[in-house]
Amino acid sequence: MTLYFSVEYRTEWGQNVEVELCFLSAEGKTHLERIPLDTEDGYTWRKRCTLRAYTKQLSYSYIITRAKDREQSAGDAQWQGNNILRREWDAVPRLFPADDACTYFFVDHWRDVSNSSHCYTDAYIAATGQGQLPACTMALFPRTCLFRVQAPQLSPGERVALVGDQPALGNWDIRRALPMIPSARHEWILSISADGLRLPFQYKYVILPPDGEEETADVKWEEGDNRQAPDMNAQWPTVSGGWVVALSDDEVRISAPHWKVAGVVVPLFSLRTEDSQGVGDFGDLREIVDWAVRTGMHAVQLLPIYDTTQTRSELDSYPYNAVSVHALHPIYADLRQLRLSDETVLASFRQRWQKLNALPALDYVEVIRLKEAYLHCFYEEQRRSVSQKPAYRAFLRENAEWLQPYCVYCHLRDTYGTASFSRWPKFGTYNRSAVTSYARRHAGEVGYYAFVQYVLHRQLSEAADYARRHRVFLKGDLPIGISPCSVEAWQEPHLFHMDMSAGAPPDDFSPTGQNWGFPTYDWERMAADDYLWWRQRLGGMSRYFSAYRIDHILGFFRIWQSPKDSPTAMLGQFSPALPMSVGEIESYGLRFHEELFVRHHASSAEGTGERLYHPRIGVIGESAWLSLPRHEQDAFIRLYEDFFFHRHNDFWAAQAMRKLPALIGASNMLVCGEDLGMVPACVEPVMRQLGILSLEIQTMPKAYGVAFSQLHCNPYRSVATIFTHDMPTLRLWWKENPGRTRLYYNTVLGRDGAAPAEPAGWLCEEIVARHLNSPSMLCLISLQDWLSVDEGLRNPDAESERINVPANPRHYWRYRMHLPVSELMGAGEFNERLRTLIVRSGR
């Protein structure tokens, strides 16, 4: 089988275009090949190749790669994984039936992320209730023209057809347009015999009304110039025998209304139902989904739900310090679904959890003690019967790669009373065979942790399926870091810089910066394996979530890192970065005073021994800066602004473009980024190019020198919210800074005079409505701020609704709803008010 590839892509110096070809043999085996293309002008890339093996079907996509250095051999496996600069957007794979007797011509355009990429996500599918069609079968003729186009913007019942400039294509007569066949992933396909066609030819796609309506009425012609099929004889040698010309077009060019959704943001531990066990759990998700349905919402966003168990103290309440990126937290097990056979024991547990559920806030220590005791009892009752179930065996088999290390980790942690694996005799360093042997020797005890994960997986899967059936999607949270005492740090330390600690530079949240205590990533090691660690992590999330938030997305451009034992983040630096030589520093007009300037040993430029330096963030105004002559103070300000706000833009953009596409391509989840803080100018264009939704908060404008952003200027690809879990609620913010509140009251809300001391319900409702009416695709508002609309329902103690204080690394995460979800369900007037606000906003 002979294949001809042709694609248009403007490369830069040192870049190549390659095809990643995947084909299925007659024996059912999958084969992968990378084929470099050739170019004469750096824009049109072509290649002829031959497949020797008999093939049933094939698929392919294009990648941009770095050219090899002379020292790199063609068979260097690490190079193969590390030289990919960019991948196409491939939510709709180019998949074709194969005929060994045919020659194939693939005429393509590079696929950037589609403007309608959200329509291909699980979130869109769940919220709209659209089912997925199977891939249709394509008929092949002795000579075939095959057209493929995506049309995700269609209204129910609308159809796609093709019309062109030749009799076989209808001669531009809409009544003779050729109807296309719907296929998977919003794709429409048409296969016709080329015997009646003359190449080249022009054509367009049209949108026909639903069956039964007048065919010529309301037909939509796509916008823009006519499409053109190339003259194959001018581009390729004449071919004898059968051939297929495959024209894979971009989306149908029609205008369509924007899809917009409203939702609620609430930590899972904060949910309260009548029979919760002192904490929100996976069973409680059904009730909050029911409330979302009643109010017209289609999204429920959660904080991380992964196991954080290290000390079983209040410190474990911090949801971003998980001991596993895969294992779910046992505290979220719904004990109501796990009935003990001993009624006396069951009654005793129920009495304990009722007392815990009556508390105004989460008592983490007592709740985890209750949950684990109950789960141990249930395991002893069920272990023999469950171990024989095919579903349980399949769960163990499918998750073995992370599950066995996690289970052994948990048993060692509980055996030695510490999560610090450096203190485990014989197991301070991970050894796979030793871990497997240990799991076999302690099968009963180790099996408990696997059993709990199976229970949690079943419960969360059922809750997620329940939400999807009710056109509500769950949005998860992807923490930027891992705990230094996590399974991953134990099992795969080579993927991390264990001597460094991630954090954030000084900002409004924390004047001395934040040292999160997480090791930083060794991105070069991860790239060598094509980011497999991340792809597996996202694949696991996608079993439950249809969308996710990338915590601190700036960390994929650069991370603020400090030495592991540094008490604050003040002396940290961005990594990766481009430090400065003495010559560069002095080129700004600043004499280099080593004894005054240098606090840490400088790095050296590779291969030169020249010392390089990072300016310290936040130093302007401090004694070292004040001691400089005025002209050197001004010179340092120029250097400072250039280093932190201009010097790295292209460099950091390239870093993100290597990493983020691997995350996006790992699942069909809708991707949102938390892009707050000290945001480099390169972040917005990269997120826009990749289709990642930004986070827009009116009180944290991204434009310099602006007090409050304008909601009507929010980009469509964004999430609008009032405040996040790291901030005060609307009612708390209103009281924190009266001067700023008055400015907001006067300039944003357009009201005269002093702002009221407390925001009344009608005032909160106006603020909520303004956010709902923004252009943002998603408007996700915290439960506390939704409740602020109703003075009868909202919590009288506003301070108790605070979730986190970022400046306090030992903060106790314990906020819970002050009323059960059932009471919300019964608040008919309130729910109708919210539904009206949401419907009027077009969500």
Terminal residue distance: 50 Å
Oligomer: single chain
Structural class: alpha/beta
Largest sheet, spatial ordering of strands: 4-5-1-9-18-10-14-13
Q: How helical, in percent, are the residues?
A: 25-40%
- Describe the biggest sheet? 8 strands, mixed
Low-confidence stretches: 70-75
- The radius of gyration computed from the alpha-carbon positions, rounded to a whole number of angstroms, is 29 Å
Question: How are the SSEs ordered, and which strands pair?
Answer:
Elements: E1 2-8, E2 15-25, E3 30-36, E4 38-39, E5 44-50, E6 55-66, H1 77-82, E7 84-87, E8 94-97, E9 102-109, H2 122-128, E10 143-150, E11 159-164, E12 178-179, E13 181-182, E14 187-193, E15 201-208, E16 220-221, E17 227-229, H3 232-235, E18 242-248, E19 261-265, H4 285-295, E20 299-301, H5 343-357, H6 364-387, H7 390-398, H8 400-416, H9 432-441, H10 443-469, E21 473-478, H11 487-491, E22 496-504, E23 514-521, H12 523-528, H13 532-541, E24 547-550, E25 559-563, E26 573-575, E27 580-581, H14 582-586, H15 594-597, E28 603-604, E29 611-613, H16 623-626, H17 630-645, H18 649-664, E30 670-673, H19 683-690, E31 694-697, E32 718-721, H20 730-736, H21 738-748, H22 761-772, E33 778-782, H23 783-787, H24 821-825, H25 828-840
Parallel strand pairs: 1-9, 9-18, 10-18, 19-20, 19-33, 20-21, 21-24, 24-30, 31-32, 32-33
Antiparallel strand pairs: 1-5, 2-3, 2-6, 4-5, 6-7, 6-8, 10-14, 11-12, 11-15, 13-14, 15-16, 15-17, 22-23, 22-25, 25-26, 27-29, 28-29
Helix pairs in contact: 4-10, 5-6, 6-10, 7-8, 8-9, 8-10
